[in-house]
């Protein structure tokens, strides 16, 4: 849930709660449904490559039929599986990136509007403890490029009492996406004082995410996560990054969880 401005994240929170019966994660089993809501604040870079941070909600809604809740990484995009076959799942993925204005970045560079992203993900559990996930999203506004992520998570848990996960992340972006945030056109070079720079697509960053959730009784629990990404390649070499932003992209959140329904 990184790279989201406050308003889109609040909109997503309302959407998730309103559409919870249809779109929440739902596990297997034949018992009565249980629902878990995780909600709290998170801090993340205001846009890719930023050295400034935005505060928004850390939100997750899950459902299950008296089985344990399915694992969801704390930083994955919003979306629920539409197809499940054994250990494989496939479904839609949605994301937001807040707008970047010249006044925000501190140089006369073109504005990148609010980016609403839509795409899909596929994931497979190689073992109960190891999940691989591939995600791709298209910017419908804002950067209008393609971005995606390859991730792996090692999961240790004791049912729903506690869960710990950790794993690597590789973030990708096509040339249109990378140029929107890290490029400097000849015209922008004249107004900003930065050297012209025409980056290509590819790997944008590498990083790691760790998350922990623990229940304190039947209903209440706490969830925390931390993520660190390091820009690489053309994104790291950009004068926008070197002079106005940062190669380091940390994020994290803390939230309360509330579980209700079912027989537990």
Write a concise synopsis of the structure shown.
The chain is α+β, with helices and mostly antiparallel strands and 264 residues long.
Descriptive account of the structure:
- The chain has 264 residues and is of the alpha+beta class.
- The chain has one domain: Outer membrane phospholipase (ompla), Chain C.
- Helix content is 18%, strand content 48%.
- The protein has seven helices and twelve strands.
- A twelve-stranded mixed β-sheet has the order 1-3-2-12-11-10-9-8-7-6-5-4.
- Strand 4 and strand 5 form a beta hairpin.
- The protein is elongated, with a radius of gyration of 19 Å.
- It starts with 5 loop residues before the first helix and ends with a strand.
**Average pLDDT, to the nearest integer?**
89
Question: Topology as H/E string?
Answer: HHEEEEEHEEEEHHEEHHE
- Nearest-angstrom radius of gyration? 19 Å
Q: CATH class, anyone?
A: Mainly Beta
The overall number of domains is: 1
- Strand runs, count: 12
The portion of residues assigned to helices is 10-25%
Envelope shape: elongated
Secondary-structure arrangement, i.e. CATH architecture: Beta Barrel
């Amino acid at each position: 849930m990184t790279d989201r401005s406050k308003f889109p994240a609040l909109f997503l929170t309302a959407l998730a709660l309103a559409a919870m019966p249809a779109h929440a994660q739902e596990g297997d089993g034949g018992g009565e449904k249980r629902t878990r809501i995780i909600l709290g604040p998170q801090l993340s870079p205001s846009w890719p490559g930023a050295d400034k941070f935005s505060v928004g909600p850390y939100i997750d809604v899950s459902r299950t039929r008296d089985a344990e809740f399915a694992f969801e990484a704390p930083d994955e995009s919003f979306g629920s599986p539409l197809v499940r076959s054994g250990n494989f799942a496939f479904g839609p993925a949605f994301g937001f990136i807040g707008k970047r204005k010249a006044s925000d970045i501190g140089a006369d560079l073109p504005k990148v509007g609010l980016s609403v992203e839509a795409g899909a993900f596929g994931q497979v559990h190689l073992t109960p403890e190891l999940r691989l996930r591939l995600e791709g999203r298209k910017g419908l506004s804002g950067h209008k490029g393609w971005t995606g992520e390859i991730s792996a998570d090692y999961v240790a848990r004791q049912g729903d009492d506690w869960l710990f996960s950790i794993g690597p992340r590789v973030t990708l972006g096509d040339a249109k996406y990378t140029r929107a945030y890290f490029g400097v056109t000849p015209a922008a070079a004249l107004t900003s004082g930065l050297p012209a720079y025409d980056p290509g697509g590819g790997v944008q960053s590498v990083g790691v995410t760790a998350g922990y959730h623990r229940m304190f009784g039947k209903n209440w629990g706490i969830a925390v996560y931390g993520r660190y990404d390091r820009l690489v390649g053309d994104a790291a070499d950009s004068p926008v990054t070197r002079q106005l932003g940062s190669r380091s992209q940390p994020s994290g959140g803390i939230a309360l969880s509330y579980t209700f329904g079912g027989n537990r």
